[in-house]
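Task: complex structure prediction.
Instruction: return structure tokens for all chains below.
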Amino acid sequence: MSATPADVHGHDHAHGEAHDHHGPPRGITRWMYTTNHKDIGTMYLWFACTMFFVGGTMALAIRAELFEPGLQFFDPQFFNSLTTVHGLVMIFGAIMPAFVGFANWLVPLQVGAADMAFPRLNNWSFWLLIPAAILLMGSFFMPGGAAASGWTLYPPLVIQQGISVDMTILAVHLLGASSIMGSINIITTILNMRAPGMTLMKMPLFVWTWLITAYLLIAVMPVLAGAVTMLLTDRHFGTSFFNAAGGGDPTMFMHIFWFFGHPEVYIMILPAFGIISQILPAFARKPLFGYASMVYATASIAILSFIVWGHHMFTVGMPAAGNLFFMYATMLIAVPTGVKVFNWIATMWRGEMTFETPMLFAVGFLCLFTIGGFSGLVLAIVPVDITLHNTYYVVAHFHYVLVSGALFAIIGGVYFWIPKWSGHMYNEALGKVHFWLSMIGFNVLFFPQHFLGLAGMPRRIPDYALQFAEWNMWSSIGAFIFGFSQLIFLYNMVTTVRSGKPAAQKQWEGADSLEWTHLPTPMPYHTFETPPVIK
Amino acid sequence: MARHEPTREQKRRALISAIALAAMAVGIYVVMMFKVFVAK
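Output:
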């Protein structure tokens, strides 16, 4: 992709912040009423960071309880609430808002638009998250404690619990509405606001992955909303959709939930693929290998995600033909995913690679996400899954996908773009220490959980048999290493934004998307006031 | 320096896209609820 050089030293640069008459207003109102995509992106990222530390604290509480057999700190009901809210907070409060933050910052910049298509809708999408978070966290203080059914909110347990479940259901509705509005904004921006010459197949892969993710969100969030609405009517309005006592069917909830839930997994990983596809070429100093095949693989994964939900419920007693269908459909996803992994490796092949912190996280992602993908293939096999269902093997699998997958990509992405966003360079030495402690801590935390699962340790229990003690102890030690090493990241980012050394206009020489080639560092408040022309 | 605004055509297309996408989301929700309620 090449672009006219006018903007590199054009008015966006020449005027910069010093002469920008459209700079941000001062004070709290800047953030409350802002319609600027950069401000909203920043708020999304800080919100996600806050929720990450809230959910992380819950994770450390869980691992502290599981450090050794016996009940140490919590009663079992509170432990179940911790696992439930930890899952909900990390999925809906940390990972998804973080990716929306990236989308807000990067989509307009990478397609050459001045802002999102609907800036006020964008502001509203963000501010819906705050009451949702308050509802979710406030439910801990309700009689009976927070929802304790697991993040899947399975009936009949969830029908029997107290008011905290209603708060959780309302929070899920708000989060879903926020996601749908955000997705509408992202799709309309990508389809309608691109700069002249920015054809679809010239868009950076991050934009492509978000375009596809946004369609997934619009397709499945209403399904989740329907499921939790029916839970609400079962609880308060005398219906029996899922209540077996009234003739309902709890299995139906599982089908509906996982019809949402599996595409949700890809909602959390496709933008990560996009970020990795930006970082690897920049540090390999080569164009992304197989760009078109990456786009088609992303779309294939998204389409396949709609026909694999049954693999989450092999043990409910579906017909053998159903189990076989879901098994083979699940295995099919390995094909486009394999295309992606192959292309990332081919991108690095014979590249002039250097290993700054973003690249370390990208390579870490590649190694560890692939392990998570392979354990997913293991779980796709029906008889194996029947054995391992609801064991710690499953916990290990999805944390390899969501922590070393989604979270590593988010962290790598923040290190990659923070020089451009803030105008300051982070501390590289601290970044590398953060990476290696995360890498070691993560593997000590989650790799032994494969062994625990294979040995038969069930998930969501506050106590366990003696034979599981040793690996649980290792896992908890890893959790504390991983958890506390994230404070280094927080410190590094805060000091970068406040007092980091000035970053270069193009901090990474291999980066080639518009925000690097066309915009100054730091970026002015408004960018691409004259659209760039892409050749 | 005047702030660049999307063209009228861009705004029109964005609005049409947004309405279509919102209708899709609401439609999925309504059809699902309607189907379940009718089945019951």
